[in-house]
TrEMBL record:
SMART domains: STN. Residues 48-100 form the Secretin/TonB short N-terminal domain. Residues 1-25 form the signal peptide. This is Ferrichrome receptor FcuA. It is found in: Cell outer membrane. PROSITE patterns: TONB_DEPENDENT_REC_2, TONB_DEPENDENT_REC_3. The keyword Membrane applies. Its main location: membrane. Keywords: Cell outer membrane, Ion transport, Iron, Iron transport, Membrane, Receptor, Signal, TonB box, Transmembrane, Transmembrane beta strand, Transport. A motif (TonB C-terminal box) lies at residues 775-792. The lineage of its organism: Bacteria, Pseudomonadati, Pseudomonadota, Gammaproteobacteria, Pseudomonadales.
Amino acid sequence: MRSISFLLPPLAALPLALASASASGIELDVPAQSLDAALTNFAEQANVRLLYDAALTRDGRIAPALKGDYSVTEGLQRLLQGSGLTYRMDADGTVTLVPQPEEQGSLELGVTTISGRLAGRDDLPAEYAGGQVARGARIGMLGNQDMQDVPFSVASYTSGLIESRQAQTLGEVLRSDPAVRQSYGFGNFSQVFVIRGFQLFSDDISFNGMYGVLPRQIIATEAVERVEVFKGASAFLNGVSPSGSGIGGGINVVSKRAEDEPTRSVTLDYASDSRIGTHLDLGQRFGADNRFGVRMNLAQREGETAVDDEHNRFSLAAFGLDYRGERLRLAADFGYQKQRVNEGRSVVYLSGLSKVPKVPDANDNYAQPWAWSQLEDSYGMLSGEYDLNDQWTAYLAIGGKYTRENGVYSSLYVSSLDGSARVGRLYAPRDEESRSAQGGLRGNFATGSVTHQANLGLSGNWREYRSANESTSAGNRLPGNLYDPFPSPEPTPTVNGDIHDPRKTGSGKARSVALSDTLGFFDDRALLTLGVRRQSIATDAWSAGTGLRTSNYDDDITTPVYGLVIKPTDYLSFYANRIEGLAPGPIAPSTASNSGEMFAPYRSKQIEAGVKLDWGGFGGSLGVYRIEQPQGVTDNGVFGVDAEQRNRGVELTLFGEVHPGLRLLAGGTLIDTELRGTAGGNNDGNRAVGVPEFQYNIGFDWDVPGVQGLALNGLLLRTGGQYYDSANELSIPAWTRVDLGARYSFKMEERDLTLRASLENVANENYWESANGGYLTQGSPRTLKVSATLDF
C-alpha cells in the first residue's frame, strides 16, 4: 500500500489483489478527503490494483464522499470528477490514472466510453473531508465559490450534518455554527438568528440565492440539501433584504435535487414527550444521460414537546424538478408548509425590576391555554441558466410565496422577583404576498496575464401584506406568575383594523443592478474583487384602522465592495474586505414630534481581514471584523438617525477530519460592542442589548473503532452573558449546554437501515438563552430524539 513520503519514486503503486471491473455494485464507505487519500481507501475497499504518478494528486484537491453501492467504474468517475484525470483499465484489471486530454469530453475505459454527468450534485461545491461542511458556498451574485478563493467568511452545512444531528428546523442546524445564536421573534415563535451581534429575521433568508420565497417564521429541513451562512454585511452580494435585517450575516437554503443514484427512504421519528413523525424522501433521474430529475419530500409530525403542555403539528410537501442538458439547465421548486403551535411557551418581558428573575425549570410553561399560532406557506421558484459558450453563462430565476399567519399570543410582563406578572394578549392575523426575480450574466476571460471573473446581475423583490391586530394595553393586562402559572381569562383587547378581513397595511419594493469583476494576478495567487450595486428601495404604509397612507419612501442608493485574497501556498490564503449592509429606513414613532417621518435607508459599514487554512482533510479560519450600524433615537422629542452600534469581533472556525473516523466542527467568537450617540448621551459606551461577549462551540462525530456502522457525536455550546437593556442595568448570565447522540447503520434484508438517537440539553439546564430584542427567551429543555431511516 502506498504511503505519502518524499522518498517515494515518481510512479506510485497500490499492490492490491486483482479484481474485475464489472458493473456489479461494491459497498463503499470512502469519506470526503484529499484525492490521494480517497484513492487509497477506494483501492483497498474495491480490491483493485491502482497505478498513478504521485505528482498528479499533489494539488490538494478534495474528492467527494462515496457511501453506498458503486461499481469500480462508477466509483472512479465520482472520485475523479473535476480533477482533470481519467483512467485506463488493462486486461489484467490494473487501473492506471492518466491526465485527461483537453479535447476529451468522456472517460476512456479501454474500448468502452462513459459520458454524461456523474452521480451526486456537481452543481454544488464538493463536500469537505468528513462530510459535515462543504468546500464552498453560494456567494450571492458571484455564484458558487471555493472558500479559499473569496475575501469573505462563509460556512456551508451539508445534509449529512442535518441527518446526523436529527435537525428538524433551520435553528437546530445552525446550533453547530459558533458565530450564530438564536431567539424567538416578537410575540410569536419565529426563529430569529443573531450573527455577529445583529439580528437576521427568517423573512430575510434566501432560497437558492433569492429572497422572498421561503416560508416565513420557521423553516423545516426535510427538503434542504445545504444551509449556507455568510458572515458579515452583504448588500452588494444579495441586494437589500426584504425586511432589512441581516446586517451581521445572511443565510441561504439550498433545496434537494434528484441525484444519479435513486433516492428512496422513509424515516420514522419520535421526540419527547410524545411527538411522532414520518418523512418520505423519493428521488429519481430518467431520460437520456439522466437529464431529467424529480425529488419529492413529504413530512408530517405531531405531538407534545418536552415543554409542559406545548403541542406542535407540522406538515410539509416539497417537490423539486430539474433538467440538465449540455448547455441548458432548468429547475423548479414547489412547496407547502403548515405549522401549528398550541400553548407555545412565550417570551418574557420585564417591568420595573432591578435584576433579571431566576430562570424557571427547563420544562415549565407559562403560556396561557388559549394561546396558539398557525403558519401556512405556499411557495415556488423557477430558475434556469444557459451556457452561451465556454466562458459565459446567462441565468434567470423567478419565484414567490403566499403566507397566512394567524395566532393568539400570550405575553408575560414580570414585575417582581417572586414571579408576579401581568398577562397580555395579542391577536395579529397577517397575509403576505411576495414576488421575486433575478437574472444576470457570469463569465471569465483574460487580458494578458490577468484573469477576470465578471458578473452582471439584476434583482427585484415586491411584497405586499395585509394585517390587523387586537392588543391588550398595560391597564387591561390580567394577573399571572412566572413560577406558578395559572389560567387567566383572555384580557380585553384594543382592536386595530378588521381582524376578519385585514386591509392592506404595507408594501415594499426593492430593485437593483450590480456589476463586479474578480481580477486574478500571478496565476490567480492574488484575487482582487471590485463591485458596485445600485439599489432602489420603496416602502409604503397604511393605517390598519383607517386605511389612510401613513408614510412612504422611494430612493436610490449605491453600495460598493472591495475584497482581496492572497494565496502564498495551496493551503494558505489571506483575505480582507470592505463591504456595506443596507436596510430600509425607519419611521419616526408616534411618541416623537416628527411622528410618521420616514428616513433614508440605513447604510452599515464592515471592514474585515483574516486567514484561512486548508490541509485537505482539516481546515479553519481566523478573522477580525468591525461593523458600524446607524440607529434611530428620539432625543428632545425629535426622532433621528443619529445613534450607532459598533461591533468588533474575532472569529475562529475549525472543521474537517482531524483523524480517520474523527470529524470536528468547532470554533468561537469574541464580540465587543459599543453604543454611540444615544439620547442625551446617557448610554454612550454601553454594550448592545442581547449580544454576548463570547460564544463558542465544540462539536465532534466519531466512528467507533471495531464496530462497523456505529458513530457517536456531541455538541457543547457555551454563550456569554447578555444585557437586557441599553442602560446595562439588567443582564442574564452565561450558559452552557451539551447535546449527545449516536447512530448505527447496517443492512437488513439487503436494505440500508440507520438508527439514530440524541439527547439535547443532557443536564436539563435551566437558562435564559437570549435577551435579544429586549425580551427573554428561555432555552429548550432536555429532549430525547430517536429515528429510523430505511433506504428501499
